[in-house]
Amino acid sequence: MKATIERATLLKSLSHVQSVVERRNTIPILSNVLIEAASNGCVKLMATDLDLQVVETLSAEVDTPGETTVSAHMLFEIVRKLPDGSQIQLSAADGKMLIVAGRSRFSLSTLPRDDFPVINESELPTHFALPTESLKQIIDKTRFAISVDETRYYLNGIFLHVLKNGEGVMKAAATDGHRLACVTVSCPAGAEDMPDVIIPRKCVVELRKLLDECEEEIKISLSASKICFDLGHAILTSKLIDGTFPDYTRVIPTANDKLLKVNPKALMQGVDRVATIASEKTRAVKMTIEPGKISLSVTSPENGMATEEVPGEYDADHLDIGFNARYLLDILGQIENDVAEIHLAESAAPTLIRDSDQSAALYVLMPMRV
Amino acid sequence: MKATIERATLLKSLSHVQSVVERRNTIPILSNVLIEAASNGCVKLMATDLDLQVVETLSAEVDTPGETTVSAHMLFEIVRKLPDGSQIQLSAADGKMLIVAGRSRFSLSTLPRDDFPVINESELPTHFALPTESLKQIIDKTRFAISVDETRYYLNGIFLHVLKNGEGVMKAAATDGHRLACVTVSCPAGAEDMPDVIIPRKCVVELRKLLDECEEEIKISLSASKICFDLGHAILTSKLIDGTFPDYTRVIPTANDKLLKVNPKALMQGVDRVATIASEKTRAVKMTIEPGKISLSVTSPENGMATEEVPGEYDADHLDIGFNARYLLDILGQIENDVAEIHLAESAAPTLIRDSDQSAALYVLMPMRV
């Protein structure tokens, strides 16, 4: 193999592939990036952690087609430190890859291409395309709610499914049992009969990084066990979480009759301030809601007390309710309008938060006892 | 106590004092800041870790003079989160301090002022003043070399002393046994007979933060056990390290007869690149120096090999020498000219690095076997 690649091009692709590679690996080849140089001037970079695989394609001057694998982090660091504008020559032979640019020469040990594990991208019967903006919205509005509790592995991702009632609706949801985020988009053609899938957090994170550089539409293929995102310059393939997502629609309240309208930024700032006093563990903030006024308060035996008033529009009965400040801030941070709708029932009941009844996203927050 | 202070003023002072407060304290009052409001409109904030004490003075509208102590980090966080432009009212009574600004109210528990430990700033017989720029230079050029090895506590600071030979020279030095940094400034009036002192790292770090906002001159008072920096708006008092700094002048080579002149930036970039390959532990880079050429190389059994050439001016005998890349980069980063002078003797001998023979700072680096 022998190919020459412009530094900026190589660096960008390597930054994508190396972030899929885990820092510690018991299987040595998983630390490596697979480099395939084809005679048509295409160079492919591939990395995997056995669950998630990324393939980047870039153009290069290929003298000798061929393939090899070298340490992804090492190659990334070398290319990062080379001067901007460098032409980088990669050549592999005899178990070594030589990297030459200007007065710098590096020789890295390689591992054989044949040992590199590849996730098969075929046998994915469902095909559809989503606008890049829809996919961004799905991820941005839900990923904060993905559970980090590994014992509830079926909550460690975003649940994507299509309603089978013929309404033409696709829904994405994430929850950790304390809060739920749900986004509704129109069902793209081809996805009508797709199986319900749970996309793992790492796939979500890597996918989101790539989306900023993507064109209008993302082609998605999936089966019940795998999903593949074709982003043009990159293809991301991931195993899906093999589990059953709980029936989250049952926790979305439909009869919360007390509506509070509030400026989300003003409420966030107030909650953030009074939460300074809250103990690290519970982070509980109490909201006392009366017509025209929300009082936020925190009492902590060790630290003291804090109160703050925030204006709000409300004409139902007086209500005291407590929330985890962190969770409430996460959700309020998602509201885009100047007014957030907070639909309440009572102190112990799930609360619904959204921009308006027109918005694609809705959030459910479980209260805390305060 | 009752006083009203503008948020920006209070925030700036609190950011200084709270950084002296350790995050974990076995003595509760050490987590607190002492607030003293005087009838002349002066508010003093004081914090200490028993070794280092900072006192900030700011102007306020004082209704009722008085004093109290509250959690420094808590007060800092509250003030930080209050809106810019707020007028913040502090009032203390009955074991509580009330903080009121706009619609926000906080009540923090206090501890009695009398329990607050104070480092006595009197009994410091030596008095002199240093230009702020000289003090910045002393710190900036030496602090990277301060040892972090707590078993060699006498190296955990900057050694400051005046040559007793009547040359009118003050010297500052820091070393960790692998590298040494030394700065020479002219001896200020009043410092001629000062005792040799070792200023602890934490004092150096906090002092440096404050210097950017300081006027032309810093008034320094010291004894053999304490040092006090009067910065105008703030007074920093620190205990000195009770130990003997080694006679570092003996390791500064005087007969290194091989002179290499090199662009420090070019050498840094080269060293940084080849060091990518070096094992995390040794970080060893080999320099092969010949007339007109420096070859940098690293060989690592696990990672591979790297070489790079850097142009340099040299007309002595061929020399192979190894350095810890991190240490060499630290020193080269201090060179301000376009040319660094590297004075070499042989592979196992200390190397002298400096801007020129006119420069106030010089560095000594011990080589490594490669």
Automatic annotation (TrEMBL), chains A, B:
An example Gene Ontology molecular-function term: 3'-5' exonuclease activity
Family matches, as InterPro entries: DNA_clamp_sf (IPR046938), DNA_polIII_beta (IPR001001), DNA_polIII_beta_C (IPR022635), DNA_polIII_beta_cen (IPR022637), DNA_polIII_beta_N (IPR022634)
Organism per entry: Zymomonas mobilis
Localization in the cell: Cytoplasm
Record text on subunit structure and interactions: Forms a ring-shaped head-to-tail homodimer around DNA.
Superkingdom, natural source: Bacteria
Residues in DNA polymerase III beta sliding clamp central domain copies: 130-247
Keyword Ion transport: no
UniProt-recorded name of the protein: Beta sliding clamp
PANTHER family, A to Z: BETA SLIDING CLAMP, DNA POLYMERASE III SUBUNIT BETA
